[in-house]
Amino acid sequence: MGVPMQFSIILQQVVNGLSLGAVYALIAVGFALIFNVLKFSNFAHGGVLGISAYAGYIAANQFKLPLIPVILVGMVTGAILAVLVELIAFRWIRLQKGQLVYFFVTSVTMLMLLEQVLIIRFGASFESYPYTLVKVRVLQFGDVTISVTYLLSLISTIIAFSGLIYVLKKTKIGIAIRAASNDLTATSLMGINVNMVIIAAFIVSGMLGGLSGVLYGISASLSPQIGQIVVKGFIASVLGGLGSLTGVAVAAVVLGVLEVFLISTIGSGLSPVVIFLLMVVFLLVRPHGFAGVSFSDKA
Amino acid sequence: MTFYITVAISIAISSIAVLGTFMLTGMNGLFSLGQAAFMGLGAYATAILVVNYGLPFPLAILIAIALAISLAFFVGYATLRIRQDFFALATFGFGQAMIALLTETVTITGGAMGFSNIPRLTSPALAFISLAIAIFFVWGFRRSHFGKDSLAIRSNELAAEVEGINAFKHKMIVFVISAGFAAYAGALMAFHISYVEPATYGWILSVTWIIIVFFGGRDSLTGTVIGAIILLAAPEALRFTTAWRILVYCVIILLIINLRPRGLFGTWEISLKPFLRFFKSKKQQEAK
Amino acid sequence: ATPTAAPTQAPVTQETAGGDAPVIAQPKGEILIGNLQDESGGMKALSSALTYAATMKIEEVNAAGGINGRTLKLVTYDTRSDVNEAINALRRMVEQDKVPVVLGPPIANIGIAVAPIAEELKVPIVGLFMDDKCTIQENGEPWTYMFLAQDSATYQGLTMAAYAIQELGVKKVAILYNSSNSYSVGLATPFEEAILKSGGEIVAKETYTGTDKDFRAQLTKIKSANPDVIYFPSYPVEIPLIYTQAYELGIKVPMLGSNSVPPTGLAPSTDPAATTNTFYPYGINPSDPVLVDWAAAYKAKFNSPALAQSFSGADAFGIILQAIEACGDDITSVCITEKLNTMESYKGFQGTVKLSPDTHQPIGLPLAIMTIKDGAPEFVTWYTPEGPAK
Amino acid sequence: MLEIKNLHSGYNKIEVLHDINIKVPDGKIVVVIGRNGAGKSTLLNTISGLVKIKSGSIEMNGQKIPSAPHKIVASGIIQVPEGRRIFPSLTIAENLIMGGYLASNAEMNVRKEEVYNTFPILCQRENQQAGTLSGGEQQMLAMGRGMMAGPKILLLDEPSLGLAPLVFTQVFELIIKLNKERNMTIILVEQNATIALKMADYAYVLENGCVVIEGPGEELIKDARVKAAYLGAAVKTLKEPSPREYLE
Amino acid sequence: MEKAIVIDMKNLTKKFGGLCAVNDFTGHVKENQIIGIIGPNGAGKTTILNMVSGIYPPTQGEIIFKGKDISKLAPFQINHLGIARTFQNIRLFQEMTVLETIMTAYSWRAPYHFLETFVSLPRVARFEKETKEKCLHWIEKVGLGNEAHSITQSLPYGMQRRVEIARALASEPTVLLLDEPGAGLNQSEIHDLVDLIQGLFTELSLSIMLIDHRMDVIMRLCEWIYVQDFGKNISQGTPEQIQKDPIVIKAYLGEEIINA
Ligand SMILES: Nc1ncnc2c1ncn2[C@@H]1O[C@H](COP(=O)(O)OP(=O)(O)OP(=O)(O)O)[C@@H](O)[C@H]1O
Ligand SMILES: Nc1ncnc2c1ncn2[C@@H]1O[C@H](COP(=O)(O)OP(=O)(O)OP(=O)(O)O)[C@@H](O)[C@H]1O
Ligand SMILES: [Mg+2]
Ligand SMILES: [Mg+2]
Predict the structure, then answer these.
(1) How far is A160 from chain D, CA to nearest CA, in Å?
(2) What is the torsion angle, in degrees rounded to the nearest 10, for the CA atoms of residue D44, residue D49, residue D53 and residue D56?
């Protein structure tokens, strides 16, 4: 590169990376809740996210609701959908004591199915949220600009994240959710209604999915495949390390920053190659992820 | 070539890749989200070697498989020792990287435009015989001690290690074989449809194969093969549902996995013994 | 099985003298027309535009008594934008349903993939696959059965380059395109070459891939390169995002787009402030009252605004119909192909289309250069790679 | 008073328990012994609602107990399951909280103190992940977790499994203490029959899913047939009489 | 004649984070000898076994097996040298029968390459057949003759323990590590178990490291006993010495030795 990059450009790229990371983090935390607690990669989360994004769109476009109610519509839709997903795709297998791997399989099927629902209903045209939904779209700091929707993602991530940590660590229901992830039978022997606990986990994850769906929908416009962004959640969850939501959030932000960094240096085309190599190196160096607790099963 | 034969060939070829996934995911519980990338690698490598460098088809296939195997070895070496979801992630990353490479090396691969004008060398006989051989291979593998080792590692790796099974090596063998299967299927596919593009080989395709394995029954080779035929034919068979067909396809999968959580066929296997016995008794009768 | 109405007679398959594939013929009854489109995949929106346009045309024609007294029927098969499925679907509609002609998809990869199959099946396909490879073989000969009913990507890329250099007087050009999308690559490549040829300079060439939705990193980099203009041949989903993000990053230079900008404009979804300085090409002039009426009827019928592909798709289908009409009672794939090759002209939404027998692409069809004022599209001028159209 | 009447239960098609009749009076210790696979755990699991009743009934104070496991717990029946089944990824403190899930915070704090007093090691390791505890420590945790619920009836499935002798004694002292001081009703399944029978008010011997011998604890200890089969008597040549003979 | 030392554990230390599970443990097993490790729960007994069998690398110290340092080897390598073990928390393979489970212990001895399974050379089948016979023998030996084709998970606890022992024996080891084989057995079953171990010990001239909390097992079988407490070795000696050692009584056995 001939001309040295101006400082403001570098700063702008850092902001870009953090913004992207914030979006990923919100998606990842919702994904990681099920991943950490119920121990499987719930790709159906992407479907939930996608449909909620469209639900929010209808609320904003057809019913002309302002931002906050639109977000609420998205979250409620997400919660309902997540419960439906649990009932349709997971409940029955769990009752028959199927292994975790089956949940992965049905969850991906569910992602495809929800995507098809969107394709059938909305696939024929291009939709996007009215730009008036978020009044001020950018904040300007000198030469550096920050998109408000990303800022919203960031704030939501922080709130959702700390809320989740609190619930999982400090409340009975939160601990029960984690207990259920260890041993469903033993959980029921504690007097806990296991099904309710799992539904609760899905409701929370669905609400996060709905929230990220609406915010992502606003900033990224809509397409039926919008839910596939869930793979970022998957990457962050695994890199973050099992059992640590903090690790997941950190991993998501790092992923965002890394992507932007790679695009601004080697370009977008080959960055997946570098990301792959870095990923392998990282996993070798830190086999427990970013903040993974080194919990190995004891012989 | 008529429509039905074309479809049948496609199904047979994809089934070979599914068999690779059966060994890897079904028997050994390793989830690879990059299997399709090996197929892409096989497809592109063979196509380029034959079309641009004029190599004979069989030789090109061998080179492509060797390439896939070496890459699988690299990926496996780095990730098969650590947690299983890391393997899923690393293979996912590998798949993305592979697609990126195929897309970016425009002068060699044609990039997003795809690679066209591949001669149609995959005859029906080649496809079907290849599938038969692949089935036979998996059957033999599973029947030998490797089959039991697979189950042992899948259910308790530590215990398997302690009784002398080199789990890492075993997983590596299986991963490498499955990558070879996928690459071979890719080569056949490229020379069947005569066109390849990078987008085909995304993680969704890998997941589709995993779904097929679980649909048919991860503990049943018969189930996997029949499940593969059913599910690979389904999009074509469901054309009467028009735009709903993929939705219907998903619903069928969900229904089966919900109602039969161990897959369509559970652990059931077709047994050749009754046939053999039948022939034997016939021979005996004839002898008499 | 063909779900045709009672009067339809089973289509006849005749063996041609020399070739090994049969000629598809429909001597009597309903005329079937194949429609190879994405109905359940990522490109459904673009594909639907063609299906809708064809549906409207068919209803029109059938209401008026059909062609030569025979009604038309569309046989639509889903490709899911997957080449393998597309090939199977094409075979199925030709071999099972015996369609003598096919309306092709707006996707280059499928166009490239089915070209040899069409050759084998001897069935003509008229579509919107804009890449040259879809209609022209490597040896420079046209694929016998592949026809493009709108300007090719090369033509569009060259036109935009010419417009940028000659009308906007730019020197330093930045390009942002999707390297994993054949449409985007197909436009960016000739554009870049033309710019370089006419003495321009490419100061930044940034790519994105697949499903990317965040282009800030690329745009920031482009911004730092200080270009006079940014060319971004992108898909409809990405266009508003690129406009918005460029605007938010304070990029003020003109933005040159592709023909994927919806004719109805980007409002209300995009801040009008973000699209004050932009130019993009079109096969049509959407402010033409005829088109406005047609677009309104289209929207009313399908509850979905007309896209650029709707108009050019309507032309593609119109060309098919004209060829069928010219064949009279001889509805065979051979005849339709011949008529497509010899068609003098077709008067469509894009103007008067004549397909060149050498390239199977329209000859010298000018593009409408559009801009956006207050969120609404506005026609500027007709343009060709050689300069303003007469 | 817990009363099991003509109970049949089992898994899917296999019936494990056949026609079981057991009475557990309030405040008593009832011991169930039997060989591996006799159905002892199945019995406790049926009471806890984990295994479905095929026919017969389980009544508490004349009322049928509910069928869902979490409701059974709410009615005061707690099981400390075989093989501990603690929550390995939760900390010790969190495991205990789960034990007291239905209790109020105040009750929980009191009981937690008790548990910590009984097993000081749990207190020291409060924030350690339970999965990394040694086998015996896990057993203590499982007992403690059961105590947290403040049960009326405590079902103990082989609580001595893997315990060091010293702790072993402690656990049995604790069981007696819970029974005497808290008036807790206890159903104890135990392989170490000598001790179990010593503390039993009443005992049942299960064989192949049937109750073959029953009687007060001290009586069973003296019973030659019990001795031969469960107390490791030296005389192994003695032919075991068929269970039928006992019933007459 | 003095018996040779088979496994020599020198200054073994294992730390988990801040916790020192095993602290400077030194001990050895001789040829054809049964040694016992006892101690309160959490004393680090299983951890010692885990280090010997290669599951955890020691933080410090070394393990010498027949003159070779094995402390850095992987579990399967250690198994190939002739050390086999059972687990305290039973670890059997789901969905496999007893016979299949035990056959996996022979896998690594298979003389053929995986490519040979493809052509199904006769020696593949022959190996399977031979293995099967050997395994049936082991199954018979531990008294599971009738259960060879049962799914291991559906067996009762006591039988699962026997499957574990059979699986370990099928590795044809010279050293057997048993982690609480007596847990969950009643007294008469314990009796059988002691007979079984004793029988195997003499018949196969094994060296055995045994952990158990059942004093009847330990005292009857062991020639030498190590007593661990909080990771540290607090005593060692013959069963008679250990039973009388006041430190051991205080830390582990309690005043009254139950059922010894
Ligand atoms: N989930 C299950 N599915 C099928 N059969 C089972 C299941 N669990 C236990 N069994 C069978 O039920 C019978 C009784 O088992 P149970 O666990 O109740 O025995 P137990 O008396 O507790 O033995 P142990 O002393 O070993 O704990 C056994 O034959 C066992 O094989
Ligand atoms: N993987 C691990 N991570 C953290 N701590 C561990 C781990 N494994 C064991 N420990 C700790 O090391 C100590 C010793 O454990 P170990 O299992 O060796 O005890 P043990 O002597 O076998 O006890 P028991 O007789 O109860 O089985 C325990 O305090 C345990 O909590
Ligand atoms: Mg039991
Ligand atoms: Mg232990």
Answers:
(1) 22
(2) 70
H-run or E-run covering A26: helix A7-38
Cβ neighbors of A160 (< 8 A, separation 6 or more) are: A26, A29, A30, A208, A211
Classified as helix, coil or strand, D56 is strand
Q: What is the mean pLDDT of residues E179-202?
A: 87
Express each pLDDT in C337-354 by its tens digit: 999 999 999 999 999 999
Contacts (Cβ under 8 Å, ≥6 apart) of C134: C108, C111, C112, C115, C127, C143, C146, C148
C-alpha closest to that of B263 among B32, B7, B25: B25
The residues that bridge with D11 in the sheet, in sequence order, are D14
* Confidence check: pLDDT of A5 > 60: no
pLDDT of residue C265: 67
Q: Which residue in this structure is represented by tokens 């609320």? A: A59
Atom 5 of ligand 1: nearest residue by CA position: E154
Nearest ligand to the C-alpha of residue D16? 1
Task: Give me E244's structure tokens.
Answer: 């009388």
Question: Is D147 in CB contact (< 8 Å) with chain E?
Answer: no
Residue with tokens 């609190």: A166
Amino acid at C52: Y
E185 touches chain D (CB under 8 A): yes
Domain residues of chain D, as ranges?
Answer: 1-76+152-248, 86-151
CB D27 within 8 A of CB D185: yes
The domain defined by D1-76+152-248 folds into Rossmann fold (3.40.50)
The ranges assigned to domains in chain A are: 2-227
Residues with CB under 5 A from ligand 4 (ion): D 135; E 46, 88
The residue ranking higher by pLDDT, B136 or C268, is B136
DSSP H or E segment with residue A234: helix A230-240
Binning pLDDT at 50, 70 and 90, where does residue C321 land?
very high
Q: Which DSSP category does B9 fall into?
A: H
b (16+ CB within 10 A) / e for C128-162? bbbbbbbbbbeeeebbebbbbbbbbbbbbbbbbbb
Q: How many CB pairs under 8 A join A and D?
A: 78
Do residue C217 and residue A223 have CB atoms under 8 angstroms apart? no
D237: three-class secondary structure by DSSP: coil
Class of E1-82+173-260 in CATH:
alpha beta
- Preceding omega of D243 cis (within 30 degrees of 0): no
Give chain B's domain count.
Answer: 1
Residue A96 has a pLDDT of 84
Cβ of C216 within 8 Å of Cβ of A16? The answer is yes
β pairing state of C201-208 and E175-179 = unpaired
Could you tell me the sign of the dihedral formed by the alpha carbons of B223, B224, B226, B232, in that order?
A: positive
Q: If you count them, how many residues does chain E have? A: 260
Phi/psi at D89 (5° precision):
-90, -5
Given a contact cutoff of 8 angstroms between Cβ atoms, the answer to whether E72 and E57 are in contact is yes
- For residues A205 and A32, is the Cβ–Cβ distance under 8 A? no
Please tell me the least confidently modeled range out of A45-59, B33-47, D207-221.
Answer: D207-221
Q: Please give, rounded to a whole number of angstroms, the shortest distance from the CA of C374 to a CA of chain B.
A: 35
Residues with CB under 5 A from ligand 3 (ion): D 41, 82
Which runs of consecutive H residues, i.e. helices, occur in chain B?
Answer: 3-21, 35-51, 57-79, 84-104, 106-109, 124-143, 145-155, 157-162, 167-193, 203-216, 221-237, 245-259, 273-287
Angle at B131 between CA B80 and CA B31, to 5 degrees: 25
- The region, left, alpha or beta by phi > 0 then psi within -120 to 50, assigned to residue C21 is beta
Check the CA dihedral D182-D183-D188-D192 and report its sign: positive
B115's tokens: 């690679």
Cα distance between residue B95 and residue B99, in whole Å: 6
